[in-house]
Amino acid sequence: MTEAVRFDVPTRALHLGVAVFGTWAWWIGEDAGDYHKASHPNYTLHECVGLTFAAVLALRLAYGFFGPKNQRFSAWMPYTRERFAKVKEDLRTLLRFKMPEPAAHRGLNAAVQSVGLLLFTWQAVCGTLLSLYIVPGTRATGWLHTLKELHQTASVWIPTYLALHVGATVLHALTGRQIWKKMVFME
To answer: By the 8 A CB rule, do 34 and 40 touch?
Structure first.
């Protein structure tokens, strides 16, 4: 059995903020194509929600570098040989149609969270740059158009990440491991 990680209030609040504003920004992003029109309420809403998301994510990233030791990226990002071995072990467990032992910020869990943070960071940085340089009412051209296309293309990976993250939580719950309660109720 692996050690239990207790999530403090800031970790839980930042997780909730990233989840709510990140999912909301992605959900309404499909309608933000009206940026080039004189009236562009969908773009404006996407921009506001996206910038709020970027701010919450920036706080989460800062917390990952300067927060409590067990919540820092240096404690769980799978970049060492030992941590990669844990990811491989979890994948082998899944190939045997068994659920890996749930361990916050370890193994496959850490790898999926790392990829999610990278994806959402990319989207937040691109979205922030777009909000600074897009002139509503005109079409984006040149590098700005390319950046907009990359931002839109990367957004197709968000539902994949959400399916992995939420799906793993549901699968753990179905096998009797209510790990979601640690995040929601601090159990």
So the answer is: yes
| Helix, strand, or coil (residue 39) | coil
Three-state SS sequence of 5-31: CCCCHHHHHHHHHHHHHHHHHHHHHCC
Instruction: Give me the domain span that covers residue 39.
Output: 9-185
Asked whether residue 3 is assigned to any structural domain, the reply reads: no
Average pLDDT over residues 39-53: 96
pTM: 0.85
Question: Using one digit for the tens of pLDDT, what is the confidence trace for 156-184?
Answer: 999 999 998 888 888 877 877 777 666 67
Q: What's the CA gap between 179 and 187, in Å, rounded?
A: 9
Answer whether residue 75 is part of any domain. Answer: yes
User: Given pLDDT bands bounded at 50, 70 and 90, which one contains residue 102?
Assistant: low
DSSP summary character for residue 105: T
- Positive or negative torsion for Cα 162, 165, 147, 24: positive
Domain count, the chain: 1
| SS3 call for 139 | coil
CA–CA distances in Å: residue 78 to residues 60, 95, 108: 18, 20, 9
Residue 155 near residue 26 (C-beta atoms within 8 A): yes
Residue 1 lies in a domain: no
Give me the pLDDT at residue 186, please: 57
Residue 64 lies in a domain: yes
The pLDDT score that the predictor gives to residue 166 is: 87
